[in-house]
Amino acid sequence: MNNSNLDRVAKTLSEVRNKMPLVHCITNYVTINDCANILLSYGASPAMCEAYDEVFDFVKLSSALYVNLGTLNKEQEEAAILASTSAKIHNIPVVLDPVACAAIPKKVQVINRILQVGKIDVIKGNIGEIKFLAGQSSKVKGVDSLDTGEGALECCIALSRKYNCIVAATGKKDFITNGENSAIIENGTKMLTKVTGSGCMVGALCGAACGASEDKFTATVSAILSMNIAGEEAFKIATAPGSFRIKLIDCIYELSEQRLKEGAKITWK
């Protein structure tokens, strides 16, 4: 493992806690509370601001914008597009979670509009969603990916080069790339799939990390690794979904640079 890369990944955790980035979240109603709480435990400051009349001005006060398309309604759609426009004008990093884009065509229309008038710095989705956006066949069931992950890295690289952004595909293995350099993370636990919104929480953490670090690739790797290692730690104590969900947030709070470096299972490409 490249120790200098891993050192930078671990250092991002301290950068988040030192800078306490304000993460402007336009996210889905199923997991909004969990996203806010995990951001607080990570060391960031969450703001769940989605009113159309407020988002343009609020984005410029923020360290990052996180847009999650999970329960997209008309006001959220218009707010996300306007917020991303403001992010482009004010050079605020944008993390997009394209929830259910492979199942609902409307989501793709919104993504294309954001790319047209705003910007996206990181696309973080499950493997099925990323494969779909890359123009490949994917196996999904609603918001969940049933894909095995074969060819996922190649799809991430193609999508990253197409949109000139960081792309992360999460699953049994997590694939992150900037189009040139890539990381494959093999940490985590199956219990993360038994908790609603674990992917949304990862997206929020990516927003915090990108709001604290100039290196968006390393930041994204760090956020996803943090979630996975916290999941492993939580599962040692809580082996059922309800208690695991609570302990997961505790374990994010208790993370350290040393724990990330000791526990990381990362292959660099």
Which regions have little confidence, pLDDT < 50, spanning 5+ residues?
Answer: 141-146
H and E order: HEHEHEHEHEHEEHEEEHHHHE
The domain count comes to 1
**Strand ordering within the main sheet:** 2-1-3-4-5-8-9-10-11
Number of strand segments: 11
Q: Report the CATH C-level class.
A: Alpha Beta
Q: What proportion of the residues is helical, as a percent range?
A: 40-55%
Question: Structural class given helices, strands, pairing?
Answer: alpha/beta
Question: Rg to the nearest angstrom?
Answer: 17 Å
Cofactor: Mg(2+)
Family: Belongs to the Thz kinase family.
Organism: Clostridium moutaii
Pathway: Cofactor biosynthesis; thiamine diphosphate biosynthesis; 4-methyl-5-(2-phosphoethyl)-thiazole from 5-(2-hydroxyethyl)-4-methylthiazole: step 1/1
Describe the model.
By secondary structure, this protein is an alpha/beta fold. It has one domain (3-268): Ribokinase (UDP-N-acetylmuramoyl-L-alanine:D-glutamate ligase). Helix content is 53%, strand content 16%. The chain is built from eleven helices and eleven strands. The protein has a nine-stranded mixed β-sheet, with helices on both faces. The protein has a two-stranded antiparallel ribbon with strand order 6-7. A hairpin with a 2-residue loop joins strand 6 and strand 7 (144-145). Helix 1 (3-19) crosses helix 9 (216-237), helix 1 runs antiparallel to helix 11 and helix 3 (52-59) packs parallel to helix 4 (74-90). It is globular, with a radius of gyration of 17 Å.
